[in-house]
Structure formats: C-alpha cells, structure tokens
Amino acid sequence: MSSRREFLGSIASAAALPLAAQASWNASWHEIARELASTRHDSPLHAAADEDFWSRVQQAFTVDRNIINLNNGGVSPSPQVVQEAQKRHLDFSNSTPSSTALWQILEPRKESVRERLARQWGVDKEEIAITRNASESLQICQLGFDLARGDEVITTTQDYPRMITTFKQRERREGIVLKQVKLPIPAEDQDGIVRIFQQAITSKTRLLLISHVINITGQILPVKAIVAMARQRNIPVIVDGAHAFAHLDYKLSDLGCDYYGVSLHKWLHAPHGTGLLYVRRDKIKGLWPMMAADAKQADDIRKFEEIGTHPAAGFLAIAEALTFYEAIGPARKEARLRYLRDLWARRLLSHPSGRVRLHTSLDPESSCGIGTVQINGIDSAALIQFLGMRRILVTNIKHDEFEGMRITPSVYTTIDEIERFCEAVEEALDKGVPAVGSK
C-alpha cells in the first residue's frame, strides 16, 4: 500500500500534467512577453508612442473589440495567459480530491506569489497578505485598530464610498468621530494638500485614511509627505492604493507607509477577486485581523488571510499577471497610460465651444491615466447614455462637489478607440444629446 507521502507525490505529479499540456497553448503569449521584455526604448516617453510595441500588448487580451471599454478603473480584463493559468489551477482543483489539491498542493504555492509581489514592490514577503480586493485589505486595517469613543479618524470627502461607510459604521456603533476634509478639484499644490491634512489633526486624532490615487478624479496625493507628517505626530496612515498599484511606477518601500491596500484586478490585470495588503512588519502584531486568527499568529502576516475555504486558482494566476506587467515595464506602462489620457483630454479641451471642463490636472505629478471630464450644458448621465448607444463604456461620477465622466483606458486600448470616443463627444458638443430615457 502506498504511503501517504507517495500518494501526495503522485497527486503532485498529476498536477504537472496539465502544466505540460498548457505550455503549447501559452507559447504565443509567453513569446509576446519575451518580445516586450527585450524591446529597448530611449525613454518611457518614447515607449508611450510606440504603436508597434503596444500592438503586441493589445494582442495578449481577448477583449471584444465591438465595445470600447473606457471603464478599466472598476475592474480590468486579464490577458489570455492569466485566464488560462487560472483555469488550469481550477481544473486541477476539481480533478483531484479537493482537500488535497487546495490545502496541500496549491495553497503552499501561494508563497512564491507572495515573494514575487514583495520583490517587485521592494518590501519583505512577510509584510504581504494576499486578499480578495482593496475593500477587504483596507477594512482589515479600518476595523483592526482599537479606537475608543471620541477618537477621531480623518479622511477626505473624495475617498472611496465603501471605506467611508466602514468608518461611519464604527461611528454609529462605537462612537468614534469621522472627519472628512475637502481637497481642491483638481489639486496641484502638493504641499497644500499636506497642510489640509495637518490642519485637520487635533489631540484626539488617532488615524488617517488617504488615497494614493483618488478613484473619482485620478488625483495623485503626496503619500510619502503625508505619512511623514503624520508619523511625526504618532498617527498611523492607511493608504488606499487601489488605483496606484501597477498604474504608477513606484515601490512601496519608497512611500514609508505602514498600511497599504489594493485590488490586483484593476491595473495589474490579475484575476478578478484578487488583492493585496501590505503591513509593515513591526505593525502586524498590533493590527487585529478582520476574521479570527489563532493567538500564535499574532505577528504573522498570514493571519489576515484566514477566510476559510477559498479557491486557490485566482491567487496563483497572479504570477502570470506579474510576469506580464514586468515584461511591459512599470515606467513604460505609466507613460503609456498618461499618454492615452492626454490624447483624449487635450483634444476635447481644444474644442472651440469652450464647454469642456476637466476635473483632473494634466500635471504629471498630480495625475496619470485616469481623467474625469464634464461637458457644461450637457447632463453627464445623458451623455453617458449617448456614448453607450455607440458601445462606448465610461463611468458616471456623481459627487456632492462635482459630476462628470471618468475615463480609464488601459494598455490594450487602441489609438483608434480613443479617437472614436473623442469623435462621439465632439458630436454631442456640436449637436447635443437626447435627454436620459428618451429614444
């Protein structure tokens, strides 16, 4: 009779069989990745306009080109190689005794994903938890701090609604105080942004929540400076990096922050339902996990991953998304996203009507690939419906302080698609659009 070790060995060998079969299917996509990685450019700005280079990137995706998707900030499609890796792992989970596949074979492989994420963003692998999205990552932090009645938490009026809701629930339940500061729209004075947070701090302030990139405008905040200012006052800062991670070229280690949460299914193009939480090593012990963990895990980053049975496939396929991202190159990707944003933004701003209002700065220090635009005299919801009839998808932004359309191209977006979007908006400017609900 085979020993347990021999049995598990045979299962692990079986897991390798689909890998071999998949290799030929993925060969073309890995060829693209190698070609991208070997391409040299004089500068990221030169790379941004190299359409031959980006046409190879575009071929890695399986998107329906009958639709122009300019809503990649919500959730992005994955390249085919990522989709196939996820399917391969999922197929294995269902072809082998699932308890063995999930817990004894696939789950340990997650450690290599953790190590690669940490290496790419310049931190210790023991500071990276793999989660399901930015909301989970950030709520671990928001709910993991001990706060007493009357303690103040500071964020902005522009932060992500789910994160504001989380603190408002603690406000109702525990009597903490949530303070929301207003930022200029757009904001180009980086020192001024720091002062706004600094002036809001009182002797009762215990925690700050800030966005690295604000989701509704694309505004980049000076995270490093805000964290440094708050640290001088012994106030921890939770950073929402959902729209910065794999969008901007930076290292987590450069920011100096203690807590950072992201979704990997946005700009990294990882499988839907994957995220990351960074907690600086000396801060892990003092942060409670959202779901219970054993006391012996007190200073283990994995305590934040105690969510019960879950599929391993998506987490493991993050590895392919990382490979794809590294092949493109962080600096080239940031430059391309800003290049695409500038193409549509500058063209619309040049419209002779003068009715185009951009809620996003074009200063490279203040923004990148995300832009929010409003057309004076045209209801944004009606314009979005007008674009939808032309199979162009954008995001409706309705905020107490402004409204407009958020435009988020991605690396698979073509120049032709940007031009068709601009032509549709220009048609609306010249001829008007029907009211919402009319035919």
Q: Care to describe what's here?
A:
- The chain has helices spanning 4-38, 44-48, 51-58, 80-95, 98-120, 134-144, 161-174, 190-200, 223-232, 252-255, 313-328, 330-349, 380-388, 415-431; strands at residues 68-69, 128-131, 152-156, 177-181, 205-211, 237-240, 259-263, 275-279, 356-358, 371-375, 392-393, 395-398, 403-407.
- It is of the alpha/beta class and 439 residues long.
- The protein folds into two domains: 110-323, Type I PLP-dependent aspartate aminotransferase-like (Major domain) (Aspartate Aminotransferase, domain 2); 331-431, Alpha-Beta Complex (Aspartate Aminotransferase, domain 1), CATH 3.90.1150.10.
- The strands form three sheets. The protein has a seven-stranded mixed sheet, sandwiched between helices. The protein has a four-stranded antiparallel sheet with strand order 9-10-13-12, covered by helices on one side. It has a two-stranded parallel ribbon with strand order 1-11.
- α10 (252-255) links the parallel β6 (237-240) and β7.
- It is globular and about 65 Å long.
- The model is unreliable at 4-25 (pLDDT under 50).
